[in-house]
Write a structure and sequence with these properties.
It is elongated, with a radius of gyration of 33 Å. The chain has a two-stranded antiparallel sheet. A hairpin with a 4-residue loop joins strand 1 and strand 2. The N and C termini lie close together (about 5 Å). With about 180 residues, it is mainly α. It has 2 domains: about 60 residues, Helix Hairpins (Orthogonal Bundle); about 90 residues. The longest helix has about 45 residues. It is built from 5 helices and 2 strands.
Length: about 180
């Protein structure tokens, strides 16, 4: 999308032809390349070309009507894209909230007890419970805490990815809006 001709001439969309002509004359004098230093002359030539193009379009009534139709359709298209992005972002935010609640409730996850691990002879596997003098399996507790941490990390990663996706979509929408 080209830069808005109204913005180039620094006038309102509803400006009269006289105001447009006055703005054109003022900007043409201000940005004329012959009045500038040699090192920035090429920049002012490009700026003056844009000013001339904008004035040529906005000074002719028929071209101005067609241009206004194009601007209106582009703006409505951008508005629709922004609305779509907004609803997608709201949906993703809801999913993030749901995942955060799952993470907070992840302390209820546990591994099923594996009978074959009951007969391990590793010294770190058992410790004595002083109340009833029976061995307590500590490897099961360690694996449960490992699983809890693993699940929390997975959900945190998913939330980070969703947040990154939201940010990328917002930057894309902003770049569409600004172009």
């Amino acid at each position: 999308m080209k830069q808005n001709y109204y913005e180039i001439l620094e006038v309102d969309k509803n400006a009269s032809p006289e105001i447009i002509k006055k703005a054109y004359n003022t900007l043409a004098k201000k940005y004329h390349p012959d009045l500038q230093n040699d090192d920035v002359k090429h920049l002012y030539e490009e700026k003056l070309k844009l000013i001339n193009e904008a004035y040529e379009t906005l000074s002719d009534e028929e071209k101005r009507k067609n241009y206004n139709l194009i601007i209106t359709s582009e703006n409505s298209l951008l508005e629709n894209q922004l609305k779509t992005l907004y609803t997608e972002n709201q949906h993703l935010k809801n999913q993030i909230v749901q995942l955060q609640s799952i993470i907070q409730n992840s302390t209820t996850y546990s591994l099923p007890y594996n009978n074959s691990s009951h007969f391990q002879t590793n010294a770190n596997t058992y410790r004595y419970n002083n109340n009833n003098k029976s061995p307590v399996n500590t490897s099961r507790k360690q694996s449960n805490s490992f699983l809890k941490n693993f699940i929390k990390n997975i959900f945190s990663f998913i939330i980070s990815c969703m947040f990154f996706y939201i940010m990328i979509r917002a930057i894309f929408a902003f770049s569409l809006f600004m172009s």
